[in-house]
User: Which sequence fits this backbone?
């Protein structure tokens, strides 16, 4: 049984061993989350090299992996097709208590990366625990197709409503605020009215009318 978490990696050092297209995809995802990424590989894919040149948070070291490269990292990714290298990186990371993921190599991983998608602040992740990444991707696509196109504005509305209730309605308990927000989410008409009020900058008045 795996325990799912969402890990804040902004500003944290993440080491990626490998410089191919798979490594490039990992680096982009990590950089988008604000990580400080160190890529170590003797050969670097041109797109990765170009991407890194435009992003000061990414450092490329053109050489083979050396013992000690994992030191100081919050996470390590091994994106090579060399099982021997993956094993060596895994053993070093494990000894340093650093979570390690080897792409398509579950035996040399202490965690798995789920198939995921984002829509604004919404992040949906699906994992099969390494059993079938292809099936995880299929399920993720099915979920993604079911998400309303306007989900971002809806989430912005609910986030603003939550802030307004906390800052302006101190007489309400945490439970009462939670129940009100839950009522808005579960009632399609109320939710539509809330989004409309948010767009017209009268969300606070709308919330007041519900109390």
Assistant:
């Amino acid at each position: 049984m795996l325990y799912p978490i969402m890990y804040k990696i902004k500003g944290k050092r993440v080491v990626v061993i490998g410089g191919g297209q798979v490594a490039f995809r990992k680096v982009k995802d990590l950089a988008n989350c604000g990580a400080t990424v160190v890529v170590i590989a003797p050969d670097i894919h041109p797109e990765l090299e170009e991407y890194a040149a435009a992003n000061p948070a990414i450092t490329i070291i053109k050489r083979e992996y050396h013992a000690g490269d994992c030191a100081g990292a919050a996470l390590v990714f091994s994106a090579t097709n060399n099982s021997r290298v993956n094993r060596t990186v895994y053993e070093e990371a494990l000894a340093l208590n650093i979570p390690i993921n080897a792409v398509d190599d579950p035996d040399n991983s202490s965690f798995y990366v789920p198939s995921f998608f984002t829509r604004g602040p919404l992040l949906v992740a699906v994992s099969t625990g390494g059993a079938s990444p292809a099936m995880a991707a299929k399920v993720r696509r099915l979920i993604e197709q079911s998400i309303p196109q306007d989900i971002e504005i809806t989430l912005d509305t609910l986030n603003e409503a939550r802030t307004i209730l906390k800052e302006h309605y101190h007489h309400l308990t945490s439970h009462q605020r939670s129940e009100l927000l839950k009522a808005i989410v579960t009632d399609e008409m109320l939710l539509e009215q809330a989004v409309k009020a948010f767009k017209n900058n009268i969300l606070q008045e709308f919330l007041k009318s519900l109390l």
About this structure: The mean pLDDT is 95. The helical segments are 21-32, 46-53, 83-95, 133-146, 151-168, 174-186, 188-199, 203-210. Residues 176 and 182 are 10 Å apart (CA to CA). Residues 151-210 form one domain.
